[in-house]
Specification:
10 helices; alpha/beta; 3-stranded parallel beta sheet
Amino acid sequence: MNLLVCASAYPPSVGGVQTLSERLAGALAERGNLVRVLARGGEGEPAYENERIPAEVRRVGWKPLLWPKFMGEVFGSRPQAILLTHRADFLRPALAAQKLGTPFAVIVHGNEVYGSRRRGELIEALSGADAVIAVSQYALERLKELGLQAKKMEAITNGVSPDIFGPPEDGEIVRRRFGLENKKIILSVGRLQAVKGFDSVIRALPRIVDKVPEAVYLIVGGGPEAIPLWVLARELNMEERVIFA
């Protein structure tokens, strides 16, 4: 199948949408599809892209060029379907391409829609999609509550590529590294941004420790909220209970 994958964020920049976009494009290509990627950002590092996924990647840096480049892909490569890995940037162009006969699906992660001041407008636009894929059942139900009425709506959770992890050990290797033997561990993995809610777990930690004295909170990831989270843990006298890995 001839597919066009549109990504509002893509490697070498770092983040969840970037990782999902790259690996999804690669997995679709590995299954025998002809995959072209149109991604926001500079020209990037072609060697990096070619090594990681068997898909051709084109970039759109200057936003006014987005529509021309998008339509150039639609008329040039004639994709049978378009997949948006995020609603940003490409939703309106995809709706225009749909009118020309190219169906599209869009992946919705959640808060970028129901946390937006423009959520009513976004729900209306998303309802025109041929398919909306929510990354969780919770996100799908929230979208439906807001009035989403796309032709097809499914909850498909993000996958994991086990081949990139190693060594094939159990959690003992991590417990030994951080001295967590005999501890009850709360684990969060993700980019340290305010929207993720890591602070909510830290605020709840004193009450958790009252009931589970051996509890610790292990945070894996980096981002702009690292220092504020550390400060919050210290203010609550939980700095020895919150471990940043």
